[in-house]
């Protein structure tokens, strides 16, 4: 793939998004892009060059941007509304709720640089609340791809799916997941690694960290199941039943655990199969600092995840 960072084997998922959007737009003239003066950060330069009449730049006006997207959908277009997720889901939440979700319009929301990608810019630019805001809007499918392959599949699926979608992208370089014979299926968790002692459930930028944590646990004789829960709305309850069958769960997300993946899994286990759940992510506002620093102080590392697994096992009496 051309977007590989040659020296590290890491990828910027925004490259896969931008390349795929150009591709699907070639096959469907209804596809348009709507941005908030974010052509560069959304990596839509190639799209703008290929389809100059199919890109709408409303300027720094996120509420207008989502409203324009809803209007275009109502007129028969398939709008991909792209902006930094902190502003897309925060500033325009009312429009997302009323104009997209409640109206059930065919709008594709693309949250760029999500989580704490804008680490040094502080809490105003962190987007860690978006899961909690969007999960209650049951008509929106929420997808959090873990690598470029999954980004491409998600964009292709969204382009033909009839209904509102939110795709959460990061600018943090990530590796390709090593999963043979992958099949993308919205609403189904991906089994990245089989395991029977504890389940580690991640999404987005945390899945590859969960795999590394499983390696650390394996060295201690602990078999860890790793799930890529790329669809948060709606959750794969069958996969959660299987995860709970291990007797202990760890959730890992680049988001606030209250209302996010951790909250969703805890809601499920409390209602269906109570087991210890250790939730890793953010408890609330984060300090200003580098991305690596913020991940480390919140235990979003292989070592932190494996330690959380040991705590969950201890709580389970094992």
Summarize the structure.
This protein is of the alpha/beta class and 318 residues long. The chain has 2 domains: 165 residues, Rossmann fold (3-Layer(aba) Sandwich); 126 residues, Rossmann fold (3-Layer(aba) Sandwich), CATH 3.40.50.
List keywords for this structure.
318 residues, alpha/beta, Rossmann fold, 2 domains
Shape: globular
Specify the CATH class of the largest domain: Alpha Beta
Strand content range: 15-25%
What average pLDDT do the residues reach? 96
User: What order do the SSEs take from the amino end to the carboxyl end, as H and E?
Assistant: EEHEHEHEHHEHEHEEEHEEHEHEHH
How many domains make up the coordinates?
A: 2
Question: What is the fold named in CATH at topology level of the largest domain?
Answer: Rossmann fold
The CATH homologous superfamily of the largest domain is called Thiamin diphosphate (ThDP)-binding fold, Pyr/PP domains
Question: SS-based structural class?
Answer: alpha/beta
Strand order of the main beta sheet, please?
4-3-5-6-8-7-12
Tell me the helix content: 25-40%
The value of Rg in angstroms is 19 Å
Largest sheet: 7 strands, mixed
The number of helical elements comes to: 12
């Amino acid at each position: 793939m051309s977007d590989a960072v040659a020296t590290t084997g890491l990828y910027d998922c925004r490259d896969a998004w931008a390349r795929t959007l150009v591709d699907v737009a070639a096959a469907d003239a209804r596809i348009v892009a709507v941005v908030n003066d974010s052509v560069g950060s959304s990596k839509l330069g190639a799209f703008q060059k290929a389809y100059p009449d199919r890109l709408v730049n409303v300027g720094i006006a996120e509420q207008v941007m989502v409203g324009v997207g809803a209007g275009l959908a109502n007129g028969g277009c398939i709008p991909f509304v792209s902006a930094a997720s902190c502003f897309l889901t925060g500033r325009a939440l009312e429009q997302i709720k009323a104009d997209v979700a409640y109206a059930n319009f065919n709008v594709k929301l693309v949250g760029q640089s999500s989580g704490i990608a804008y680490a040094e810019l502080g809490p105003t630019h962190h987007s860690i609340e978006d899961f909690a805001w969007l999960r209650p809007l049951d008509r929106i499918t929420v997808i959090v791809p873990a690598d470029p392959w999954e980004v491409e599949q998600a964009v292709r699926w969204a382009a033909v799916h009839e209904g509102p979608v939110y795709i959460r992208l990061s600018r943090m370089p990530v590796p390709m997941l090593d999963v043979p014979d992958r099949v993308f299926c919205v609403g189904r968790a991906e089994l990245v690694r089989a395991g029977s002692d504890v389940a580690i459930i991640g999404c987005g930028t945390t899945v590859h960290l969960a795999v590394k944590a499983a390696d650390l646990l394996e060295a201690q004789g602990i078999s860890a199941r790793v799930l890529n829960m790329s669809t948060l709305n709606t959750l794969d309850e069958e996969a959660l039943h299987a995860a709970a069958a291990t007797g202990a769960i760890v959730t890992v997300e680049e988001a606030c655990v209250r209302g996010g993946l951790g909250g969703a899994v805890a809601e499920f286990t409390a209602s269906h199969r109570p087991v210890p759940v250790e939730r890793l992510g953010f408890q609330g506002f984060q300090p200003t600092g580098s991305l690596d620093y913020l991940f480390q102080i919140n235990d979003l590392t292989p070592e932190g995840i494996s330690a959380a697994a040991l705590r969950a096992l201890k709580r389970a009496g094992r």
